[in-house]
Amino acid sequence: MSVSHTGARSHQNAQASRSPRHHPDEAKQLIVERAFEFLWEHPFRDLTVAKLMAETTLSRPAFYQYFNDLHDLAESLLREIQSVMHETAHPWIGGGGGPNSSRRVSLAGVVRRCVEHGPVLRAVADAAPLDERLERAWSAFMKSWDDAVEHRITEHQRQGLIRQSLDARHTARALNAMDASVLLAEFGSRPQGDPDAVLETLHSIWVGSLYGRSPKRLPIPKHSGTT
Amino acid sequence: MSVSHTGARSHQNAQASRSPRHHPDEAKQLIVERAFEFLWEHPFRDLTVAKLMAETTLSRPAFYQYFNDLHDLAESLLREIQSVMHETAHPWIGGGGGPNSSRRVSLAGVVRRCVEHGPVLRAVADAAPLDERLERAWSAFMKSWDDAVEHRITEHQRQGLIRQSLDARHTARALNAMDASVLLAEFGSRPQGDPDAVLETLHSIWVGSLYGRSPKRLPIPKHSGTT
DNA sequence: TTGACTTGCTGACACTGCGTCAGTACGATT
DNA sequence: AATCGTACTGACGCAGTGTCAGCAAGTCAA
Question: How many interface pairs between A and B have CB atoms less than 8 angstroms apart?
């Protein structure tokens, strides 16, 4: 549209230190790395394209060659972490092992990953509500866990290890939501919490709510006046 | 600093429809109401000061007479909802009633409040990570629940209703985090979920993990090779 | 009534960060 | 050496924010 600004520059001074050219994927990965570094020490709200690219030899507009915006970048971070997480949790998802042994081992792996990438993962979670696409990506991420857990629960229901009256879908979602909240809260910002205590707490809730015999429905006292 | 723009206007046309003056708290409450309306239908990310005040007879700068920024407004929304929620949950916090009866009644009340104010509460939760002050306010909000639950758990531990080995603090935080996540997910955006199913699921997890006899520690299979 | 004071409110400004574009120069290919 | 594709950049327009000097509606005193 407006061209008024062109022509005025021509070939100004020229020794303007153009950065060395990268292969596209190379540069993209470089930006992702800087983002990891930044988000390890700062919350997502402090991240701007300018700040991020300042940690680079590239200029701010270069960012937009590789990402649509910061949320798009966050989606890449999520994908990266997601692949690592799914990998360490696969043994449990895949099935096999006792009713809670491999579950516990798997959870321990997830906890470990959260200790490693907590702040970054939290950044993604924080950013999710700000962008529809990213929000969907986050939902899909959570859904993948929900599906796995739901499948496992129904399987155990068929084996009689879990009572039939339990709503597999809702329960799976609730327990996963709990894990996510707790893990992000405990390991999403420094100083991080105690991995062992968290693991123990989460595991005991999972086991208690899934496999624990519910108490023989204690008689409900009749003074139900408590509104 | 620059004053160049003054004096040029003098007393321009003058019939510029100045809005009727309000008493301060009156106008503030009016803005809060508009915010409630807006956030009931749109996510927080779509809220801007201009859009909000456009629903008003006031101008955009007037907003800053009553709030520092949108996060400050969100804090007001939170306080408003918080008072209502604590009120309906008080019977359980106050104690009395059977181990799970009043707990259930109380939870039902909270669920109801979330059906009413879900989207707004979600907006606050979404906005929390964007501002340090608001983030702290949200944490304090959650902490008030955590404290109440922790207290209740230790009380029941003293009565022998809950096993001593359970970590009251961590468990309270985890269960509350679960409730918050699930409630915001189910009722934070339309179409909302099924209140009864959610209530049932959450309640059963609480009861199972707190009061349920944990299964007699199933023997851990020896093929611990699942990394 | 009138003048002086208070204060709710507003137009206009500076500023920050975003996303885009025409245009440049580097490296590869011939 | 000439050409071409493309990684990259300076500069722009835009959206939204927070602030300020100034205005006018109300109040009170004389």
Answer: 159
